[in-house]
Here is the input.
Amino acid sequence: MKYLNLYCPLHTEHLWDFIAEVLDKKNIPYEGSKKKNLKNEVLEIISKLLDYNLIYIGNEWLDQSTIKKWKLSNEEIIKKIDDIWFESAEYPDFFNMIWFGFEDWYKNKIKILGMTDTTNWETFVNYKIGDLEQWIEENRPKNNTIHEKE
Amino acid sequence: MKINFLKLGLLVLLTLFTFSSCNKEEEVIESTSTIQERGGIKVQTKNNLEDKELEHQIDQNLSRIKQIFEVAPPKTLKKNYKNSKGNDSINLQDIAINTEVFIAIENEIGKTSYTFEVNFPTNDDNQEIINLHSYYDENDHLKNTLLKYELTNEELRSVIKNQSFDGFWDKVFYLDMESVDTTTTSKRSLANKSGDPCSCPGGGGATTVIWQAFPSYSNNSGYGGSSPGVSYALPASALSSPQVYAALAQAGVIMGYGYDGATTMNYTFPVIYFSANDLSIPSSSTTGSATPFSNLNNYYPFYGLKDLIKNYYEQVYVPEINNYITSSQTLMEDHLKKQETINAFFEFTYELQQNSIPEFNYLKTNQNLTRDIFYFFAENGASNEAKEFANASIEILSLPIIISSNQLDYKAQILRLTNHLKQFGNIEDEIYAEYIESLLPEFENMSIGEVNDIYLQVKQTCNDLTIKYFFAIATPVVTDLIIPVVTYALLEATAGTAIKLLQRIPVSMVLRGVRLNKMVLKLTQLGVPGVQANVRVINTGAPISKARELFLSITKNAESVTQVSPNVTKAAMGNGNFIIYRTVSSSGFPATIEFNFVELLGTNSFKLKFGL
Here is the structure.
C-alpha cells in the first residue's frame, strides 16, 4: 500500500507529515521537489483518507490534544487546504496551517488489535491486518462521508 | 671471502648501532648478554673488563686519545671558549673511554677483539662516532685502532635501514694508534688530521695524526652491482694500509683481502633477521642480570606479557600496504627499536613498583591496561612526559568507586577526574570537564543518589577517555561525551535535576555544525522506537519540562527562535535545518521535538515524542 505510514493514527498530525512521507518515498528534499505536483499528490492522499472517514482536520486547538474540527464536506476541506497552502510555504509554515486527527472508530479498532505508540506500524499492519484498505472498507462506518458544516 | 664481508657488515654495524643507540644517561645494564651469533662470530655487549692486560691499556689508550684529539679533534667536539679572542681549548678531562658498555667480538678461531665508544663532549646533534678497537694480532700483541664515523643523523638512519655503509665509506675513517708518535709533547706544533706536518716552535719532531679514509666505490663504478641498498663494492685492500686490514681481520672485523691491489669485489649482503628470542629483559636492579626473552615467565610480573611482547615483536610494518603483517623475521633496525620499547616498558614498571605498590598491583591485574601502556611506550618512547602520563593514567584508572552519603566526597572525586581530563585531554574534553564542574554547585539541590549517578557517569567517561589517550585516537566531540548526562537527565533524573543538567549545557557544546549535528544524531537514538523508524518515544516524568529544557539547550546557538503558532516554536539552525518544539499533539503526547535535518538524518521528518 502506497504511503502506508500516513494511515498510522499515532503518527500523522500535520501537513508536513504528508509532505515528508511523499518526499521520503521519492528520496528528494522539499527544495528539490516540484511544489505543484507535490501539493496535488498530498491533497489526493488527504482526500482518500477523508473518503475512508479516517481523519478529521482543523486549524485550531480546543486543548493541547484536541483539534477543533472543520465541519465541511470533503471537497470543501480539500479546497480550503488548497487555499491555505500558499505556494512559497517553507517547512515551519506548515506548522501554522492545519492539523489532523484520526477518527475514534479507527483509533479504537486499531488499539483493540494491539497497536501502541511503540508498535511498529508496518509490522502491525502486516501481521494484524493484512490488506489495510480492505480492512478499512469492512470496518469503517458507511454513513458518515460528509462532515458537518462549520 | 664472501663470509668475511658478511661479517664486516654485521659486526661494524652492530658495533655502531649499539653505541649510536645507547643514550649516555641511560642506566647501564650490568650484565653480559649475547647479541648475535652468526657464522661462528659471537658478539657480546659487556660491562666488565675481564682482560687485565686490556684494562691496563685502557688508561694508556685514553692518554693517547687525548693527545690525538688535541692535535686532530673531532669535528663536533665542544670546546671551551676562554677569552674574547676566540681562542678555544679542549677540556681533555671530558674525554673518556666508555668501559661501562662495550662490545666483545670473538671470531671463529676464538680470538676476541673489543670495541669501546670514545666519549667526548659535543655540541652537534649529528652523529660523529669514534670507537676504540683493541685486538690481538697474530703474535698475540694487543693492538689499538680508532674507527671514526662522520655521519649525519640522516646518514646514520640510512645506514641502519640499509644495513650497509654503501655510499658512506668516505665518511668512515680509521687510525692506527701505534702510528701516532705520542712521545712528542702536546705543546709542540702538531699536524692536523690531513696529515700535513707543521712547524713546531722550539724544534723537535712533529706528531702526525692521519685518519685514513676508506676509498669510495659504488655500484656504478664498472665493477658490477646489484640491487641498491643490499650490495656494494668494497675497496681494494691494497688502497689502504695492509696493517689495518690485517689487524681488523684478526678481530673478525675485516674489509676483505685482495692484496694484489687490483682486485675489486662486489658482494651482496643477505639481510640479517632477528627473532623475539634475541630480545633481552632488563633487570629490575642495577646489579642484576638481564634475562633472555626465552626465560621470561608469561605469568609474571604481568599475566600474558610474554605473549604480548612476542605478538608486538612479530608485527612488522609494511609501507607498501600501509599495514602490519605478522612476521618472525625482523630487521636489525626494527629489532633495536623493539628492544628499546621493552626496556622502556620494564623500566617504567620497575619504577612504578618501587613508588606505588597499589598502582603496580592494579596494572598487574588489568591485562588490557598493561597492553595499552606497552603499546603506548612502543609508539611514544619513554620520555619523562610519557612516563608522567602513564603514571597519571594508572592513578586515575585505579581510583576505586566511592559510595558516600556526603556530596563533598563526590565533588572531590569528580574534581580529580575533571582535572585529569583538562590536563591530558583535548579541547572537547576540557569543555566537558568544565561543564561537569559547573554542575558541582547544584549538587546541594540534588539527592545523594543523583549525585552518585552523575559521579559514576563522569568516572566512566573519564576512564574511557583515558584509555583513548593511549592510542592518540581523536577523542569524540564533546556532544558525544555529554549524551550520557543528557540521557540521564531525560530518562532518570527528577525534573529539577534534569533541568539543571540541561540548563548548564554551554553553548559551545551545541555550536551549529559538527557539534550540533553530533548532538542531533545522538538525540535521535534516545528513548525507544516509535511507530515508525523516524519516531522515537521518551517516556519520562515531567515530559514537558524536560522537552522544553532540551529544546532550549540544543538551540542556544540557533540563528533564530520564534513562535510559529500557539504552542509551536521553531528554531532555525542554519543550512535550512530546523528544530520544532510543540506541546500540541493529536496523538496525545504532551511534548514533541521535531528535527528537520534532511541531509544529516536522511529523512524529511524526525520526531522525538515525550510521554509519561
Observations:
- The two ends of chain A are 33 Å apart (CA to CA).
- The domain at 4-104 of chain A is CATH 1.10.3510 (NMB0513-like).
